Amino acid sequence: MITLNSLIGDEAQALDQHWTGREATLWTALPGIVQSFDASALTCVVQPAIQGRHVLEDGSVEVVDLPLLLDCPVVFPHGGGCSLTFPVKAGDECLVVFADRSIDLWWQSGGVQPPAEPRMHDLSDGFAIPGPWSQVTKIGSVSTSAVELRTDDRGAYVSLDPSSHAVEVKTSGTLSAESSGAATLKCPTLKIDCPATTITGNVKIQGGLSCSGGAGSATATFTGDVVADGISLKSHTHTGDSGGTTSAPK
Known about the structure:
Blueprint: H1 4-7, H2 11-23, E1 29-38, E2 43-48, E3 52-55, E4 61-64, E5 69-73, E6 78-79, E7 82-83, E8 93-98, H3 104-109, E9 126-130, E10 147-150, E11 156-160, E12 167-171, E13 227-228, E14 231-232
Antiparallel strand pairs: 1-2, 1-8, 2-5, 3-4, 6-7, 8-9, 10-11, 11-12, 13-14
């Protein structure tokens, strides 16, 4: 219906309609749902999670899905030669932030580039930031005292406590570490609580070695020789009671 203000040419209403219409064409940020992830290009296809409103010829309003957002660069925290990445999967929720200008040339070539087109706040120029949760998908057991790198189910996590400076690593799966160089573990005391421990390669102990436990409960098994202060466990001999020396242990 045409309003009376429109018929009499109300400048205030005309200005309001101009800016209201302009705002409807500007996109700033929207929650979205990842449809696919390209791990080589570090981009994803996103379905905006908020629908758009389409005014029909009769003045009625139809709610429709916004088009898929293609080739959205995924924002992973990185800097100084280090990066933190996530195995982005279809169905993950994200926040899409739309650039002020066209990002095409920057995305292709990096550096400082001119805008390829005059478009502004366009659906074509979105960056996908993994992270936001709706109440349906939110995780639980969030620590309120420590920072954690964790799986959503918290079956595996690394925790850093800012108060005590304690670091905790826990997993319900396997735990492994590998280094092509030297590795050092330095601490006042060390306790290994494990039913069975296997060490491959040579072992050198600078200091005392003791095994304790109940009768028959502590066993140390070595494949190869054990040398203490230059004396071999396998080839050492003793002075015999009647002179000479004993043979090596068998």
